[in-house]
Specification:
Elements (H helix, E strand, L loop, with lengths): L35 H33 L1 E2 L2 E3 L3 E5 L3 E4 L2 E3 L3 H6 L2 E7 L7 E7 H8 L4 E4 L10 E4 L16 E5 L3 E6 L3 E8 L7 E9 L4 H30 L4
Parallel strand pairs: 4-8
Antiparallel strand pairs: 1-2, 2-13, 3-13, 4-12, 5-12, 6-11, 6-13, 7-10, 7-12, 8-9
Helix pairs in contact: 1-4
Length: about 250
């Protein structure tokens, strides 16, 4: 006697609950090749890699400056000799801003000047740029434009026929120092445009000084660490955005 086919099944197909059978669709495998999304992801990873390198380089430079150029608590330029036949040596206009950021990045400013002769006095001060320009207007003086080595290097000469008023009576300085030997002027940086001046206290012509400038930059080391950390994080993200689309394009799921 023939055996009947169970209810709900056929001879050539699996039941609805079976895992096998000729009618079962194959599971799709990982697709290789480059899609638009993978290309965009790779490009984004490459861009982040460049940004990461820039941050690491910038952070490294800041850290180097904090370690190598800091002397007696100030990140300091090299000492250079400047000279003019005029009545004063003036810095270029320095613009400071950013409020609290200024306090961390600049902090206190220190300018040290020394006359060539130990018994010759020198005057150094800093004041608002516009008022200093008015004070020196019409006089012969030089603007310091660089930190080259050698007497007379890095200056731009301004001609004039007038003679400046005695510096201690000008009433324009926010910080000043005068005397023989090395004179140290310290000033807490503030928002605004500023100019520093070195001259003979008796306002005589012919000024020669050895000078350096520095800033306390209390937040420099922290800024360097944060920039380097940001570079590392972006570098890791860049590696992921580069590696994933390459692996997927190669067909490895």
């Amino acid at each position: 006697m023939a055996t009947g086919i169970p209810h709900g099944t056929t001879a050539d197909s699996g039941g609805p609950g079976e895992t096998g059978g000729a009618g079962r669709l194959p599971r799709p495998g990982p697709a290789g090749g480059w899609t638009v999304g993978r290309v965009v992801t790779l490009v984004a990873g490459s861009v982040l890699a460049l940004v990461s390198l820039g941050l690491l380089g910038g952070g490294g430079t800041l850290l180097w400056a904090d370690l190598a150029l800091r002397h007696d608590g100030y990140v300091t330029t090299g000492t250079t000799t400047y000279s003019t036949t005029g009545y004063a040596l003036a810095s270029e206009r320095v613009s400071l801003g950013w409020g609290l950021l200024l306090t961390g990045l600049v902090g206190d400013v220190r300018i040290r000047v020394t006359a060539p002769s130990p018994d010759r006095p020198v005057f150094v001060a800093i004041g608002p740029a516009d008022r200093v320009a008015a004070y020196l207007s019409g006089t012969a003086y030089a603007t310091v434009t660089g930190t080259g080595s050698g007497s007379g290097s890095g200056v731009t000469v301004h001609d004039g026929t007038g003679r400046p008023a005695p510096p201690w009576t000008a009433g324009i300085w926010v910080a000043q120092a005068a005397g023989t030997g090395t004179q140290v002027m310290r000033w807490t940086a503030q928002d605004g445009d500023w100019t520093a001046v070195a001259m003979n206290p008796d306002r005589s012509a012919g000024v020669t000084v050895r000078a350096d400038a520095g800033v306390s930059a209390p937040g420099l080391a922290r800024l360097a660490a944060e920039v380097i950390a940001g570079g590392i994080i972006l570098g890791a993200l860049s590696a992921a955005l580069t590696w994933i689309p390459v692996r997927l394009a190669a067909g490895a799921g």
